[in-house]
Amino acid sequence: QVQLVESGGGLVQAGGSLRLSCAASGRTFSSNAMGWFRQAPGKVREFVAAVSWNGRSTYYADSLKGRFTISRDSAKNTVYLQMNSLKPEDTAVYYCAAKGSGAYPLPLSEYNYWGQGTQVTVSS
């Protein structure tokens, strides 16, 4: 059974930082793109960031460039999201995702493995 398990969420003050981790099990994603999405209360799920199979190609939501950094450790089957200068509007459930096939971040429609999510709350 394939599982993606997120960790690292929590409560942080505005301006602070958090690092999310997502560990995959049940299969390797070393040849596949992985990414992060988020869903705020009352809003649709939105794309955050994604990384290619080898970590060399990354893609970010325009509004998050410069504050968030995605990386991966394929040996550990894990993807990370470093979030800096957090704002209250970053409050959301953050979901890890992976492609069953597809080595590069786009298209976003190809993400078909999902974690359960981790809550990130940024207080003002």
Let me know the largest β-sheet: 7 strands, mixed
Which percent band covers the strand fraction?
A: over 45%
* H-E string: EEEEEEEEEEE
- Which class do the helix and strand fractions yield? mainly beta
- Provide the low-confidence segments as ranges: none
Oligomer: single chain
How large, in whole angstroms, is the Cα Rg?
Answer: 13 Å
Q: Helix segment count? A: 0
How is this fold's topology laid out?
Layout: E1 3-7, E2 10-13, E3 18-25, E4 34-39, E5 46-51, E6 58-60, E7 68-73, E8 78-83, E9 92-99, E10 111-114, E11 118-123
Parallel strand pairs: 2-11
Antiparallel strand pairs: 1-3, 3-8, 4-5, 4-9, 5-6, 7-8, 9-10, 9-11
Brief description of this entry?
This protein is an all-beta fold and 124 residues long. The chain contains no helices and eleven strands.
Give a verbal description of the structure:
- Helix content is 0%, strand content 50%.
- It has no helices and 11 strands.
- It has strands spanning 3-7, 10-13, 18-25, 34-39, 46-51, 58-60, 68-73, 78-83, 92-99, 111-114, 118-123.
- The strands form 2 sheets. Strands 2, 4, 5, 6, 9, 10 and 11 form a 7-stranded mixed β-sheet that branches. Strands 1-3-8-7 form a 4-stranded antiparallel β-sheet, with no helix packed on it.
- Strand 5 and strand 6 (58-60) form a beta hairpin.
- The radius of gyration is 13 Å and the shape is globular.
- 32% of the residues are buried.
